[in-house]
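Tokens for chain A. Residues wanted.
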């Protein structure tokens, strides 16, 4: 039995496998001979098995956690790695001129710098300050938009930013592992900005700009500006300021050298001189002084006043040092209409500031004459909108200055004198006006007394107020302005035309140290019989010796209109052809 048990037993006894050292006289201990070999203990096997089980269990638990417990969360993360929500920048509104020509529109950026529409501007000259420019949406270094809208910076781009601005949309973009776009589709479509129809005739404005630019170079003016307005609606038909700038350069912002030239240019191309330039107006204020004198019964319009070229006013404090007030020439005898036509300074000194008895004979007057005085004169100027903003919805507008005793005290800490009143009556001293102010004022003279706010939107009517002008007095002013154009010796002869009757007033304002420079103005309206449009043109700072005046320059604008826009002159094309 023992032999059978031993034969089939799975257990091996120790003594059956170990050799007795006495039976083997020599062992090679280096080769582990004679060493006892023990079997692996059951405890060790169970320990190793338990560790293996734990490792496998943890592995499967982690898989369960990743796929079952947190599966949805990690699925979203995985999807976001390949699908993104992106912004769609809305197109800004298109801007047209009054004839339907595109002034500002949108284009694809062919350079690839921008992944949204960029603004494109007309290449017509002289419209930079009117149209303005925008700043584009901006991205940070990671490619995320931190500014998501276009920002209007000047001109109509700024004034009508809310109208032109669209509503941005969004889209889903799918990309591969290399971030290349696989597909995209909009989930919120963008809404483009509103369109804008300007009242401005771009081609007429460009023509006026070119004429002003050529004249500036020819006569040595520093700069110039001009505008035309519908006297019944306030619509600005033409507006330009020389020099101008390229709006696309400013919107793009990459041409740093040219932008720096703009900034450093003493001719100030960024300044819209029609609304933001305040200049000494000179004699173009005389029709308003004349109206004030009529309304306050200062003088009969038919009363004759004499100008010998100089008015001498005695000095009561120092008789040996009288004050001399010069006319620009000796005009001789004249009534109010001729005084406007010839632009006599002495006539307007007298009706503005009065004349003491001792000086009356110089003017052919029997006795002392009371003038408007500075209080009434300043109030009359302000009545026509001088010294205040017109309300045109373009940035940079200045209010100008109507001098009076309070202003002089504040600025110079000095008393007001008779000479100050005299010079204020001819648009000198501290008087400053913007071209748009004077355009608005002449519009009121033309339309019978409605002071209307100018604007640049086609079809709109500007806010207005009736300033209560007497039509009989207005007629006298109109007649004087018409004589300015048609009389021999009239100061606006450059505006006489066969195709349309123009009423106008010129102005030459002395400026600078020693009155070495002049500003030249032309202001008026047409047609004389039934005024529809008022105009203003200002040429800034030419040498006093210059003989090219603003009325001659404005005459070239009328000639251009006669050939290219006869409808503004009340003409048909056939009439223009017949007159050639």
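Reply:
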């Amino acid at each position: 039995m023992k032999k059978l048990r031993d034969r089939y037993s799975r257990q091996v006894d120790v003594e059956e496998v170990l050799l007795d050292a006495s039976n083997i006289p020599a062992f090679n201990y280096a080769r582990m001979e004679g060493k006892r070999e023990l079997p692996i203990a059951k405890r060790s096997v169970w320990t190793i098995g338990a560790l293996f089980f734990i490792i496998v269990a943890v592995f499967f638990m982690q898989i369960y956690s990743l796929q079952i417990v947190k599966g949805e969360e990690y699925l979203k993360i995985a999807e976001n790695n390949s699908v993104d929500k992106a912004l769609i920048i809305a197109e800004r509104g298109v801007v047209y001129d009054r004839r339907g020509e595109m002034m500002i529109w949108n284009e694809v950026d062919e350079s690839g710098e921008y992944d949204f529409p960029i603004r494109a501007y007309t290449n017509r000259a002289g419209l930079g300050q009117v149209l303005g420019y925008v700043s584009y949406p901006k991205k940070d270094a990671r490619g995320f938009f931190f500014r998501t809208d276009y920002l209007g910076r000047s001109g109509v781009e700024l004034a009508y930013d809310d109208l032109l601005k669209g509503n941005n949309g969004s889209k889903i973009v799918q990309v591969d592992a290399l971030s290349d776009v696989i597909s995209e589709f909009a989930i919120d479509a963008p809404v483009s900005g509103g369109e804008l129809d300007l009242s401005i005739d771009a081609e007429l404005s460009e023509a006026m700009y070119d004429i002003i630019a050529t004249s500036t170079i020819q006569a040595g003016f520093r700069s110039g500006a001009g505008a035309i307005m519908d006297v019944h609606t306030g619509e600005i038909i033409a507006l330009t300021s020389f020099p101008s700038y390229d709006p696309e350069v400013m919107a793009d912002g990459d041409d740093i050298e040219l932008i720096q030239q703009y900034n450093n240019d003493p001719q100030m191309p960024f300044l819209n001189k029609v609304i933001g330039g305040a200049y000494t107006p000179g004699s173009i204020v005389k029709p308003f002084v004349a109206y004030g004198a009529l309304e306050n019964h200062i003088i009969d319009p038919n009363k004759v006043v004499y100008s010998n070229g100089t008015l001498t006013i005695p000095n009561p404090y120092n008789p040996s040092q009288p004050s001399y007030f010069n006319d620009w020439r000796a005009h001789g005898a004249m009534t109010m209409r001729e005084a406007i036509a010839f632009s006599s300074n002495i006539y307007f000194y007298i009706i503005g500031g009065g004349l003491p008895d001792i000086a009356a004979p110089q003017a052919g007057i029997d006795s002392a004459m009371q003038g408007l005085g500075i209080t009434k004169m300043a109030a009359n100027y302000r009545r026509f909108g001088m010294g205040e903003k017109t309300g045109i919805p373009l940035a940079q507008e200045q209010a100008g200055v109507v001098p009076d005793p309070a202003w002089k005290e504040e600025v110079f800490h000095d008393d007001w004198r008779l000479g100050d009143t005299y010079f204020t009556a001819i648009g000198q001293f501290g008087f400053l006006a913007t071209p748009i102010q004077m355009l608005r004022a002449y519009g009121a003279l033309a339309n019978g007394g409605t002071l209307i706010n100018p604007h640049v939107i086609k079809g709109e009517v500007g806010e207005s107020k009736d300033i209560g002008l007497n039509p009989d007095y207005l007629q006298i002013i109109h007649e004087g302005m018409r004589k300015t154009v048609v009389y021999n010796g009239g100061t606006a002869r450059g505006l006489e035309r066969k195709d349309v009757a123009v009423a106008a007033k010129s102005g030459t304002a002395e400026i600078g140290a020693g009155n070495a420079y002049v500003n030249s103005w032309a202001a008026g309206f047409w047609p004389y019989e039934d005024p529809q449009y008022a105009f203003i043109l200002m040429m800034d700072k030419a040498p006093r010796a210059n003989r090219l005046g603003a009325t001659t320059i404005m005459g070239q604008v009328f000639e251009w209109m006669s050939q290219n826009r006869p409808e503004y002159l009340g003409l048909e094309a056939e009439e223009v052809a017949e007159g050639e």
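The radius of gyration is 44 Å. The chain has three domains: 1-80, 83-197, 202-579.
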